[in-house]
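User: I'm new to structure prediction. If I give you an amino acid sequence, what do you actually give back? Let's try with this one:
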Amino acid sequence: MLFLFASINDEVIVMQHVRSRIPLPRPGGALLLAALLLSTVLSSPALAQADFHIGIMTGTVSATEDATRGAESLINQYGSTKRGGMIVHVTYPDRFVSEMETTISQLVGLADDPKMKVIVISQGVPGTTEGLRHVRERRPDILLLVGEAHEDLNIAGTAADLVVNADSFSRGYLIPLAAKRVGAKKFVHISFPRHMSFETLGRRRVIMEEACKDLGLEFFFEMAPDPLSDVGMAGAQQFILEKMPTWLNKYGKDTAFLCTNYAHIEPMLMRIVSLGGYVVDLFSPVVGLPGALGIDLSKEKGNWPAILKKVERSVVEAGAGGRIGTGTFSYDFTNIVALAEFGKRCVEGKARLESLDDLKACYEAHTPGARWSAVHYVDPGTGTCLRNVVLVNQDIYILGQGYLGITEVEVPEKYLRIGR
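Assistant: Good question. You get back a string of structure tokens that encode the predicted 3D arrangement of the chain. For your 420 residues, that looks like this:
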């Protein structure tokens, strides 16, 4: 009987081959072949025991697909802990507001692993900070990294070693500037009370209003249902689908629209493509556009340059070239892979936790061609610079035109002081 080993979906399985039709020269040859196969499997990198583990927590694939794909990419690169690799991936619940205990439990569970040295969280949803406090009490040796904290940055920074958020405050000026550069004359900001209670989103909205005034754009605010409310995701999306024609008729086709929630983006883009208007702030070419335009990206999955090329071609063919802007690489995907790489390098002594250059190097290593900026967060109330809270920004790429170069723009200090 000959045993063959194969790797499928990060699991090692054993296949028994009974009565091989290929005759073996002699019994000793069969034993030698089996020994060689076993030796190859045991010595392969996939089965080598990692020196330490990195825990990744994201939303589910239905809620945060890009972050989930980032976790999968890390498993492909460094291996799953199930097979002796470095990465273990868990998720927080879709209804994270009402199920915070689950989020806390997932984080504490990661800390139970004695080889765990880094925990990376994509989207620091409510419950993350409390969960990290529990981890810190049990395992002060674990490096705790949060990508995009939902909670107040001052609070999130008390529990994490590093918090990285999108530079919403600089983008409060840069997004209206990008809208003006592509031809918009009006700017409509769409959101709901829960999001406006977030310090980052609420303050960005105020900055945008002031920036629009200075840039010569008319600013308007529209309310939409929260997908986490009783109407659910389907109801929230239907609202946007029905409202967009009304808003375009009210404000005109020379209007740029912004939604603060991912669930609203796809129906908004469907109407923008077919009826007119602009959207210049997408974090990723796969946010909303594949669904809005019926783009099949199954063959390009994980290949961001190929994804961008296919999405750009579809947008231009649909007549929306020059009207939609995006990051060329998914922000959620990049956050996960870059922070995991940064944590790994810190543990290995190849990067310093306090170095912005070392952090930027990890982001740019995973996004060839894209430029990033990184600055420390300054508390709006006290003016104190928080050294473990960093704001990052990726350049905007206008589909059908190219990069705008906004990471090279120096944001006037007056906008960064708004809300302080």
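You can read the tokens as a compact description of the fold. Here is one thing that stands out. Residues 1-27, 36-46 have pLDDT under 50 and may be disordered.
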